[in-house]
Automatic annotation (TrEMBL):
The keyword NADP does not apply. It holds the Pfam family Methyltransf_25. GO terms for molecular function: methyltransferase activity. Signal peptide: none annotated. GO terms for biological process: methylation. This is Class I SAM-dependent methyltransferase. SUPFAM superfamilies: S-adenosyl-L-methionine-dependent methyltransferases. Its EC number is 2.1.1.-.
Amino acid sequence: MTVFADYAPWYDLLYQDKDYAAETAFVEARLRDHGVSSGKLLDLGCGTGLHALAFARQGWNVAGVDLSDEMIARAKTRAGQAGLSIPFREGNACETGPERDFDAVVSLFHVASYQTSRDALTAMFRTAHAALKPGGVFFFDYWYGGAVLAQGVETRVKVIEQKPLRLTRIAQSDHDEQAATVTVNYTLFCEDMDRATIRRVDEAHHMRYWFPFEIDAALAASGFEPAAHAAWLTQDAPNSKSWAAYAVARKSVAP
């Protein structure tokens, strides 16, 4: 099953509490810290386009790529409704596309952790490398292994109501410590209270957590100069309190 194949229609409602504008502002600040404040920006693994639209509203010349055709369709519709011209296309983050000469590439909401092998992670980094101009900056987030090991996995339930819909999502996780992976088994009950109908969606998301030394090795092998790691939405070192971390790297200027 393709990840997000059945999950996509409910994605935005499930993450309606996610502050895309604040996250975009944070990423912009980190890009400025590394010398990139404007220009062309590629959102690699753009989902339904909410980060991409936020960047475009700040003046960036944005493009977006995502594996899910339904996510891309939603991103295109959303951009059109906002009066923004953003070239979104369906594509694999691990396969180099036509995008070139970008000032920045961002890959948000743990796209790097959907790459569950070192080869896949390196392929994703090479896609970003091909899209960037020399000296361009790559910003991405990932699951930090230290926090996953410290906290362990647990079953989580999330309920969202937006009449007439009520969504109940149960996330049960299986941890394979030898492979450094977590399989998140989602069961989603989509209830239409007006029609008195319930639809069930089951989808498994196979994820990999990473450590900074692994990330840096893959970046170096892909032509990047690793620059920084930190806990998400902070400038503090990754720590056991947060699964979410991010990294910043620069495309080497040397041939």
